């Protein structure tokens, strides 16, 4: 058994040249299985609750000096949502103001094709995770920039399927 804990503190936190904290997140996704076990083309996304409330969002957190953006996206997915998978090509970069801190941030988002859901993960006692279809996920996601990332991801997938 491996013991996983969340990173804490801001000692290794990255900031851009304008002093904005850099955060990285991902959209964990899978294709729904039918009752007979075959994989369908229906996309599901995994959202998590915020630590302090019932608001829903995709996993995200600080990008630290000792990791790539992709490594940070995977780490946040494990810590906050308890999922492991393949980090795919970046969806984009957004600038936003944190409602809770009133600070400017630079956020990067990636799709994450989920390969494994962990039974135990660092933040399982402070967050709940929920699989939803894309429309439900977009409706409940609290952050406008994450909704934009989801739209870009869905558009990217639909262009690949044509």
TrEMBL record:
PROSITE patterns: NUDIX, NUDIX_BOX. SUPFAM superfamilies: Nudix (SSF55811). Belongs to the Nudix hydrolase family. InterPro entries: DDP-like_NUDIX, NUDIX_hydrolase-like_dom_sf, NUDIX_hydrolase_CS, NUDIX_hydrolase_dom. It comes from Hibiscus syriacus (Rose of Sharon). Its cofactor is Mn(2+); Mg(2+). Residues 19-154 form the Nudix hydrolase domain. One of its GO terms (molecular function) is metal ion binding. This is Nudix hydrolase 18. GO terms for cellular component: cytoplasm; nucleus. The keyword Manganese applies. Pfam families: NUDIX. Keywords: Hydrolase, Magnesium, Manganese, Metal-binding. It comes from the Eukaryota. The keyword Transmembrane helix does not apply. PANTHER family: DIPHOSPHOINOSITOL POLYPHOSPHATE PHOSPHOHYDROLASE, NUDIX HYDROLASE 17, MITOCHONDRIAL.
């Amino acid at each position: 058994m491996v013991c996983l804990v969340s990173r804490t503190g801001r000692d290794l936190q990255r900031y851009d040249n304008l002093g904005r904290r850099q955060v990285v997140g991902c959209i964990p996704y899978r294709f729904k299985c039918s009752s007979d076990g075959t994989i369908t083309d229906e996309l599901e996304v995994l959202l998590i609750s915020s630590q302090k409330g019932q608001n829903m969002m995709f996993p995200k957190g600080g990008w630290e000096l000792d990791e790539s953006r992709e490594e940070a996206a995977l780490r946040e997915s494990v810590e906050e949502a308890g999922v492991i998978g393949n980090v795919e090509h970046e969806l984009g970069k957004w600038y936003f103001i944190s409602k809770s801190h009133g600070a400017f941030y630079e956020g990067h988002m990636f799709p994450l094709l989920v390969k494994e859901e962990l039974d135990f993960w660092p933040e399982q006692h402070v967050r709940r995770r929920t699989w939803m279809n894309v429309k439900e996920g977009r409706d409940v996601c609290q952050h406008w920039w994450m909704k934009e990332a989801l739209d870009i991801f869905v558009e990217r997938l639909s262009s690949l399927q044509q």
